[in-house]
Amino acid sequence: MSQKPWDGRFSEQTDRAVEAFTASIDIDRRLYQYDIDGSIAHCRTLARAGILTPEEADELVFGLESVRGEIESGTFSYNDSLEDIHMHIEDRLFSHVGNLSRKLHTARSRNDQIALDTRLYVKDQGGKIAGQLLDLCKAFIDLAENNIDVVLPGYTHLQRAQPVLFAHHMMAYFEMFARDKARFEDCLKRVDVMPLGSAALAGTTYPLDRSYTAELLGFSSVSENSMDAVSDRDFIMELLSCASICMVHLSRISEELVIWSSTEFSFVDLPDAFCTGSSIMPQKKNPDIPELVRGKAGGVFGSLTAVLTLMKSLPLAYNRDMQEDKKPLMDAVDTLRTCLDIYVRMLPKITVNRSLTEAAADRGYLNATDMADYLVEKGMPFREAHGVVGKAVAYALGEKKELHELDLPELTFFSSLIEDDIYPALSVKQMIDRRKTYGGTATQNVQEAIERARKRLS
Amino acid sequence: MSQKPWDGRFSEQTDRAVEAFTASIDIDRRLYQYDIDGSIAHCRTLARAGILTPEEADELVFGLESVRGEIESGTFSYNDSLEDIHMHIEDRLFSHVGNLSRKLHTARSRNDQIALDTRLYVKDQGGKIAGQLLDLCKAFIDLAENNIDVVLPGYTHLQRAQPVLFAHHMMAYFEMFARDKARFEDCLKRVDVMPLGSAALAGTTYPLDRSYTAELLGFSSVSENSMDAVSDRDFIMELLSCASICMVHLSRISEELVIWSSTEFSFVDLPDAFCTGSSIMPQKKNPDIPELVRGKAGGVFGSLTAVLTLMKSLPLAYNRDMQEDKKPLMDAVDTLRTCLDIYVRMLPKITVNRSLTEAAADRGYLNATDMADYLVEKGMPFREAHGVVGKAVAYALGEKKELHELDLPELTFFSSLIEDDIYPALSVKQMIDRRKTYGGTATQNVQEAIERARKRLS
Amino acid sequence: MSQKPWDGRFSEQTDRAVEAFTASIDIDRRLYQYDIDGSIAHCRTLARAGILTPEEADELVFGLESVRGEIESGTFSYNDSLEDIHMHIEDRLFSHVGNLSRKLHTARSRNDQIALDTRLYVKDQGGKIAGQLLDLCKAFIDLAENNIDVVLPGYTHLQRAQPVLFAHHMMAYFEMFARDKARFEDCLKRVDVMPLGSAALAGTTYPLDRSYTAELLGFSSVSENSMDAVSDRDFIMELLSCASICMVHLSRISEELVIWSSTEFSFVDLPDAFCTGSSIMPQKKNPDIPELVRGKAGGVFGSLTAVLTLMKSLPLAYNRDMQEDKKPLMDAVDTLRTCLDIYVRMLPKITVNRSLTEAAADRGYLNATDMADYLVEKGMPFREAHGVVGKAVAYALGEKKELHELDLPELTFFSSLIEDDIYPALSVKQMIDRRKTYGGTATQNVQEAIERARKRLS
Amino acid sequence: MSQKPWDGRFSEQTDRAVEAFTASIDIDRRLYQYDIDGSIAHCRTLARAGILTPEEADELVFGLESVRGEIESGTFSYNDSLEDIHMHIEDRLFSHVGNLSRKLHTARSRNDQIALDTRLYVKDQGGKIAGQLLDLCKAFIDLAENNIDVVLPGYTHLQRAQPVLFAHHMMAYFEMFARDKARFEDCLKRVDVMPLGSAALAGTTYPLDRSYTAELLGFSSVSENSMDAVSDRDFIMELLSCASICMVHLSRISEELVIWSSTEFSFVDLPDAFCTGSSIMPQKKNPDIPELVRGKAGGVFGSLTAVLTLMKSLPLAYNRDMQEDKKPLMDAVDTLRTCLDIYVRMLPKITVNRSLTEAAADRGYLNATDMADYLVEKGMPFREAHGVVGKAVAYALGEKKELHELDLPELTFFSSLIEDDIYPALSVKQMIDRRKTYGGTATQNVQEAIERARKRLS
Asked: For the complex shown, is ipTM > 0.85?
């Protein structure tokens, strides 16, 4: 049975280069477990429909499990002339159960078969990604909690802006990855639809109980329209969109870790085990992990571009172009999963140089806004206060002092509303804890946010 | 008050080219209504917090509404030196309420203000898109229903494969756009979070009741973390992902309409009003609408690429790069909305040339699968039956006949299992109606699918 | 020597997951030959500079060639803890030449080494692509020449527009791929720059004769600036741009072959050996090769997106993100090269169904423009003639006739300028051959274009 | 003459929404000057062919110039029902020259007309971009020359690596932008091809002297194949590729300026006129220009994605999808040109804080490589020397000293090869000037590189 499943009408031998060009086995062999699970469920469904006897179904299932065993033990061999994983498995099944194997493909096409395999893959991997995001969220909460009293300059435009708690900064990432998790979960709802029984495109003439197949495979529902089921790949595009957005978030924390690891910032120490050195410069300790994660974002965006482009303008139903969906899908899933894994491992081992972050938060006029707020409280309109403080900053810059290092006469020169109570208002501690409006960086806020976050995860 | 809001410390005059380069007013002026709505809600919240008196709040609201009136009546003037819509409105507000206008920006930064405006825009537009998708879904249901008995060849690889109902084909699109709608709705859940009160990045020192602001603006919740609220734009990337996927679907039906409008297919007639002619070839009736929609998909993918790229690797919190998110966002929203609109208008007017689609379904060996199924029913394993039919097709091709045009002796030459009952089995009507497994193209199935679809929409 | 090249300062053992995450050996092992060639040239240059003795250089070269032999014979083993191909080769070199191997990396960093390897790869592959494009151009010329008198409807908007020679249509692709070839050649000029000697980023303190290295490796020039040499990858982005544009062209001819292979068009027959069948529908002969090529365009665009994104916003000089450039580069090169290869094989075997293409060119009012031109020649302004013909077409449509099937009284009803000489003017043959302005589809034009094309290639 | 140019055969009134959807006037009105130039050249060519009398041609040219005057003086009015710029101009021409205007479109289609207009636009704008790149290259040379003796830490992985001259760093950008310029110039060679005379797709029946048209319009050659000429847009994709790569380079210098402007680095001061402040934080001086440029890179990549996607899989010849090429093209050209302009203005005004950059170059073990090189010179194999220095760095870190702050006994502990001459070898000045291999950072090298660069530009 090493013939093609369709070569009845061909007169010429298929050219070897064509075989190599059209074969997908290098990629789709990774789907073997889903393909076998799907075939087993199909067997059971054929048996329930009376198309196979129970004994035939048992024998086929036994044969399929034998093939699975061979694949998993590494004794299975692959070759391009068998095109894809479906044919490899069916061909090998023939060795186990003989002619009976030829009944397995009844009421099924490779079109619905690959739609099923891909959905099983996405369901499985998407679920694992959601699990990894849960771990990552926990890691950020832990990192926040373990550094609850560490202060750091908050930046806008990479300029020091206002002091924030390091924990608050980390909880911003918690929010991003929590949304990522929700996004994957929403995506998975749309993946959770069983396409088998759609056959080539028009549905099947055999009386299959598709709900039974769905139940066996753990799907919540069956597809409503056979043409849609075999021809659309929006669930892949959606997964790749979720992955791309998640990589944006990972690239952002990575960028921060790279910047914070520079000598100039020195805000954090990455664990030695997660860095590498230089082949020529012995003093280097390079933040390779965040750099690689940051770089890998591009590859995931590229996968999304690839699948959007390949699906664009395809007429219904199945077209061979769609074979090209699996490489970008798997590349992106692999990339995202290893990036999440390495972050879950690395985050707990990051140490913050609190003496340096706190010193940084104390210099650079981060209390300018609070000085403006102070003036507003004393009755000055905000825009005017902003102007007054701008002038004070310019003066202080000239004197090479911070605002809180100016003495009272210097300060009152800018506004007579300023009094001695300005000094505590300009302290880092007060600045942090006065931002107690919901969502702000006040210590108590952040502690409560951490508690809420833990609850949201459980 | 034509000064910059921040120029206290600047010694040089801002260069005009810099003004033009940094100004966003050409783009963000479209956000005026959201900006004013946000400012009004902010006023009310400031009043509730005792930062403004009720009278001040009323006066500011009145002033803001006056500015809105001026914008809507076209008497408002724009210039680059006022940078953005926030400053334009505040500057103009000064003309209406004088110094009081300077109090409006208390407890607010442009960072949380633009986050709010953009969320209001996405909420509004995303909701409208979902509404348009509902209309589009209805249009596909109607088109299906109005052509319930029209048969068409179903294609794979653009080769005739098996006959399907035109209605079944249309309902495949219903499914795609119904998923698109669900995807936008899931996206909107994550948009529905009120960011105001996050101030520049660290939260505000003023005791704002953010839930009250949320309530006034129709948001379901408030943001949990101020740094996240002002620095993330994943809701934009998600909307653009949804839009890109939806454009893939639109590009597919467009490709089909273009192909079906060719002389060679002639399956449909697009309404004259939706076509254009040629400046040089008087006979042409070009399917411009589907072509343009197909082409516009590229632009939406480009918008997604743009925002993913620009957000990648940005450290927290706000960075000026993020100003560049609005053009691709608005471009994509505009494109998608006009494409949906034009499709909702065009679909009902499409006519199907049923005599041609039905003739096409009758030729090209579309009953080959059914002949194989026939043999399977008679006891032949599927793979073997497939081979038998392949040989019969090759023979028929040589005879320039269809399978159902071969006489019984010719057919039995390929398998002795074939009997006279093969002919009805090979008729288009039976082929369609035998595919009655859930999701298949049998007429009754499709009628029920239409009914379920109507229920799902209501 | 299984230690890392940089682990003098590390206190912790490198974590295994980190090793797997950071290792690039799975990808860059494909660069082994370029790496060894580069190392050999580096040896010779070190010897010329007196840093190695001639005997040392000979021994190292011998050792490197031994390693090459091991790799090529498949006896070489790879593992993640050696990170990359550079370390694998150097580590193995130690087995051959002992401590001497440690001198090889003098005056070199992995930063300039990988820049060299990648340039050698791009130079080699880019040259091969240019060669394949030459073959493809020849194949289009041959296809044109072999079908010089075949007429086909020319399309705009996939609507029949005016008759053209099939050869003219094919020569349009010749032009596209000839430009692609020129584009790759321009790209290769910028690749042809030797970076070694740039060391980590600042240049080297050793007196290397870099021109000698360049000469040994076949480069025309050496890099001007060490920081640029190790940090820029614009030559990769340019190659990927060229590849993307070329894939656009391949996708277009592929789309045409898919459409032309449909039953409705039936303009061409693809060779059986380049098609596959269906596992469920025995009559199918699917245009898989063009479909796959069309689909693969997306992957190449994705590679370009990936590298643009990863390089964006990287500070000088080398960053680890840049390790991620090789996978998209190699993916795209592999894809393009196999697509070109398969097209060069397939094109000569395509047959045109000239009776069908010619019949198609005769119907669908393709002579409407020529009727307008006829009227213009008789003195009517073009815009007016266009309107007259439009009305004639509408009338003929109603009569279910072509323009040349209307009799003279019918025609003169639309304009009294029409005389009996209109009929030859409306014949396909004349329409083709009257378009003899340079670049037009007249037979003689096309023959001359073919001759010029052959000359351009030689 | 407000009718459509093609509505002879249409029975229904074109719907207003369709008009708005299909109209391109909002975008292509920017092409008016190219369209008029093209029409004038077309007139002259028609006259030379005897299709127009000289007087008619003069009158048409006069009319076209009158329309140009109206457009440029702002008295021209636009509306969607006239679709595009071609029809607007022709319609208005009618007012000036009456029925004669109807002769202008003889031997021309909108297909070759828009191909011409777009090529003229790209030629013009591409040439201007090349000119701006020349200015930018000069600005980098000047910046290098004016800071020829300023030392700065060179970075890899954003970790201090080895000291370099600031001028050397700037000259790396010179190289990048010089390549960008060459890339645009290569692109322009392929743009410089005159398409008019290709008509709708098949060429024209009128005896046009296309070389004459080319000469009038300043093109070097005419297109070889009419179908290619009207249907390909690879020159746009190539321009967008060049623009994308150039934006990568701009994003890199921008990233560096943002990082260098941070308080932590403080390596440069951007001119006040090129920064903006904060609406809430009076002390902020934000590097808005580099941030915006960095962000705008995404939009240009998006334009490239858009055009690649829209052109993918389009059958020959013209398809309406191609109308969508102009917006991304113009968006990208505008973006690139304004970014180049602002950089040419800003660069000369950047000041380097040399005391800070030099202090930074002195700390962080940037002389570690040179210590290894020192040991190699004394006879130690490089890999071993690397290990020795690694240990010395670890020791020095523990002592909170730099390598050059260790005393001789401390140093000799790590290797007995170390002698008193190590100290000058570890000085920044020597480290720089020892890197005198071609392309290295030695002062004399950089001075010579600057001279060569000036010559290359002239």
From this structure: yes
